[in-house]
Design a protein that fits this description.
315 residues; mainly beta; two-stranded antiparallel sheet
Length: 315
């Protein structure tokens, strides 16, 4: 019997109280993912004691947790004003969710009242009645968006969850996955300071700071995983243009903040608009794309009024 990479099921559901199992179900909480990796991680405590020998003692394991990462497709629910299954993931990465029925769902970073999720991960064998199950509670993390011309825009998630011993359980049945087909990154409207630019890719990393809240009373010495900061940044690679078209150098030298906007998709319920009010250029690199000069531009995102460095609007 072998556990197969392709036969894995991931369930994710928002918790009503941090670290309390929200009991996600196959019928309601399946999420399509790729490149799923779950690692048992911990602090190895060396017992470096002095004795009459150079031999070492067996170390002990101190704090322990799960590290988890995966990719998923950036897409809407298919219905305007209805949150998709990515909603719980955005909230576990420090975003607020604002639902306008029949119109839109908006995600913006926030600075308090952070949500968390429970994740069940099933590793299913090629035969047999049971699967290996890992249940991660109190999961929080950070996300990165990667949009490349002609590809499906992907969301890359990394996070931490409380450790619990894996178990063998019945193979899940009745999985219901979101049927929305993700939009391709094509015919996208991409602008900086309202100037249309020709770019092959853009990526945006929220770069949340995720820390352990140590607690001598907590299981494995950890009370919770906290988001204590963020430094959203990214890169894009527009074709080089004349100064008259766009003066990147002036923006860079003056650290001038500019508004970024990108629209992916056109179908109602599956259209995503990404906006950032204050993008500043870190430096101006140079590249070559099929004989065309490009600018490789790393950037940072800052606030306009606060908790608005970036916005994801699904409509």
């Amino acid at each position: 019997m072998a556990l197969l990479t392709r036969k894995r099921v991931l369930l994710i559901k928002e918790e009503t109280e941090y670290g309390m199992d929200s009991s996600p179900t196959p019928a309601e909480n399946c999420l399509d993912v790729r490149n799923l990796k779950i690692a048992g991680a911990g602090d190895l405590l060396e017992r470096d004691l002095m004795r009459n020998t150079l031999s070492t003692l067996t170390p002990k394991l101190g704090k322990r947790w799960y590290d988890i990462s995966f990719d998923c497709e950036l897409k809407g629910s298919g219905t305007k004003g209805t949150a998709g299954k990515l909603g719980d993931l955005f909230e576990a990465c420090g975003f607020s969710e604002t639902v306008s029925a029949g119109s839109s769902v908006v995600y913006k970073p926030q600075s308090d009242t952070f949500k968390s999720v429970t994740i069940y991960a099933y590793d299913i064998p090629d035969s047999g009645e049971n699967a290996l199950v890992r249940k991660l509670l109190g999961v929080r993390g950070s996300l990165r968006i990667v949009a490349e011309a002609g590809q499906i825009c992907r969301l890359e998630f990394t996070g931490k969850g409380k450790y619990a011993d894996p178990t063998d359980d019945a193979i899940p049945t009745g999985m219901t996955y979101e049927t929305t087909i993700p939009p391709i990154v094509e015919s996208s409207v991409f602008t900086l300071n309202n100037v249309s630019l020709i770019a092959q890719s853009i990526n945006l990393d929220m770069a949340n700071t995720l820390v352990d809240e140590d607690d001598i009373s907590g299981a494995a010495g950890i009370k919770a995983f906290l988001i204590t900061g963020r430094k959203p940044a990214g890169t894009f690679n527009p074709e080089a243009v004349l100064v008259a078209t766009y003066n990147f150098w002036a923006d860079w030298i003056a650290a001038t903040s500019r508004a970024l906007s990108m629209v992916i998709g056109t179908t109602a319920g599956n259209k995503i608009t990404i906006t950032a009010p204050a993008l500043s250029i870190d430096n101006l690199g140079e590249g070559d794309r099929n004989g065309i000069i490009t600018r490789d531009i790393p950037f940072h995102l800052a606030q306009s009024t606060g908790d608005d460095e970036v916005q994801f609007k699904f409509e």
